[in-house]
Design brief:
alpha+beta; BirA Bifunctional Protein, domain 2; Rossmann fold; 15 helices; elongated; binds adenosine monophosphate
């Protein structure tokens, strides 16, 4: 089997045998590392992720989107047919393998195709239309890892299936925009229409003619794109192609009447809602299933300049048919959670600060620890913000932790208190201590906390 460059060779260490004069034994001791482009999301990052997913969940509820979860593994054919054979995602980035039954399986590179599959598999066209769904989960693309680009990354997305009306396009842009507003992130929306298969074909010919006239000036990849996937010409970032790209025919000039009307209507909704947008005539998105409206959400720096793409989406009216289903006009968008969580961290680092607790429970001795655990449970059940560190034994160490956690009171249970059926309350501000009845501790402390808050 060919060795993967991805997995580092384990370090080998010589370990001395117990027996005198024996040969050292070779032992593999290297700890496995996460794969390249895959990362752990550590506790320190969780507050930003949680903030993001809580806001998304709340917005989904406000706009009546229901949650759906689909498997991370799908038939590879699902993505080849929907995302497109000649897209970067399918051609270069998709994790495809044969499973033990010999079936060609893919780790999902995106979720829209899976959601349309689920819509068709479960006969969701029988439900009142449109069906509004949202999802969240890991996606996999074998991309070159770099800042903000991973091989396993998370997306969260909203889809409206079964509606051709431009109001749905506008509603999704509104939801995306509101999500970022509520997260405290400045964004700008870039928008384009790539028409329907008929008018897009006319545009593609015009675009290829333009590139043919300047063939000698463009990069080798663009020469290939002219034949294989002309719309991808608009994605080229090569310096040498920029002058030719600047002079391209405008796709909006080639839209057929129904496509133009649809796009105008989307713009009218956005204007009515006071949602600013920028028209971007080179925005085409990297997936074949899109038609008509396409959009991307960019974060905006303090200087007002658009930075990296946080998310994107558009209409995919033909995708259900491509997958053998009935005609189902639809649209959706997805955002990247890593990039969005990083932005949240930038604009709102205070989210990582730990919430202060009301009560810390300290204990001295084995018997006291058992009673303290019972006390902790009573406070927790009563909804009081309570903490402990039952692994510690010294009172000083426990009081320091209580202080660090911002506890208002520390309850101390020692051997004597266990015998007397009491507990000591220490006011962490004044240092004053008093003794109360063990069984009345929850009620007494709730009263004190209530009076403090009043
Ligand atoms: P796309 O549909 O490919 O435009 O992806 C939508 C969003 O997902 C992007 O704007 C990114 O925020 C995020 N995304 C896409 N690919 C990656 C990746 N390889 N690593 C991290 N985030 C990604």
């Amino acid at each position: 089997m060919k060795k993967s460059k991805l997995i580092k060779k384990p370090k080998v260490k010589e370990v001395k045998s117990e027996k005198a004069g024996a040969e050292p034994v070779k032992k593999v001791i290297a700890t496995p590392q996460a794969l390249r482009g895959m990362k752990d999301i550590l506790p320190a990052d969780q507050p930003f992720w949680l903030f993001l997913t809580d806001k998304a969940r709340a917005l989904a509820k406000s706009y009546s989107f229901e949650k759906i979860e689909t498997p991370v593994l799908e038939e590879a054919g699902l993505f080849i047919r929907s995302v497109g054979k000649e897209t970067d995602i399918v051609e270069k980035e998709m994790y495809v393998f044969e499973d033990l039954d010999g079936a060609k399986i893919a780790l999902r590179p995106e979720a829209t195709a899976s959601i349309v599959r689920a819509y068709l598999n479960h006969g969701m066209w029988n439900l009142p239309q449109p069906v509004r769904l949202w999802y969240q989960g890991p996606m996999f693309r074998h991309e070159r890892p770099q800042s903000g680009r991973y091989r396993q990354f998370f997306q969260l997305g909203f889809e409206i299936l079964g509606d051709a009306n431009p109001v749905s396009d506008a509603l999704l842009i509104l939801v995306a925009s509101n999500l970022y507003k509520e997260l405290g992130i400045n964004t700008s929306i870039q928008l384009n229409s790539i028409g329907c298969p008929t008018c897009r074909e006319v545009y593609k010919n015009e675009l290829v003619n333009h590139y043919k006239a300047h063939r000698s000036k463009v990069c080798e990849s663009c020469k290939k794109r002219m034949q294989r996937n002309p719309l991808r010409l608009l994605d080229c970032k090569e310096e040498q192609c920029q002058a030719v790209k600047k002079e391209i025919p405008q796709i909006l000039d080639f839209l057929c009447d129904p496509c133009r009307k649809h796009f105008m209507s989307v713009l009218e909704y956005l204007e009515e809602l006071g949602l600013p947008y920028f028209l971007n005539n080179t925005l085409v998105r990297g997936l074949d299933y899109y038609n008509r409206t396409v959009f991307e959400i960019y974060s905006v720096g303090n200087d007002g300049a658009a930075q990296s793409a946080l998310g994107g989406g558009g209409r995919y009216d033909y995708l259900a048919e491509t997958l053998g289903g009935r005609t189902t006009p639809a649209c959706g968008f997805a955002i990247g959670l890593e990039r969005t969580a990083n932005k949240i961290k930038e604009v709102n680092p205070a989210l990582a600060e730990k919430e202060k607790i009301d009560i810390f429970i300290a204990q001295l001795g084995d018997l006291a620890r058992r009673k303290a655990m019972v006390l902790f449970e009573s406070f927790r059940r009563a909804g009081v913000k309570v903490a402990e560190d039952f692994c510690r034994t010294g009172l000083r160490a426990q009081l320091e932790i209580a202080d660090k956690l911002g506890a208002r009171y520390t309850l101390i249970v020692g051997q004597k208190e266990v015998q007397d059926g009491t507990v000591i309350i220490r006011d962490m501000e004044s240092g004053v201590q008093e003794i109360i009845d063990f069984n009345k501790a929850v009620a007494d402390l709730q009263k004190k906390l209530f009076l403090n808050a009043a």
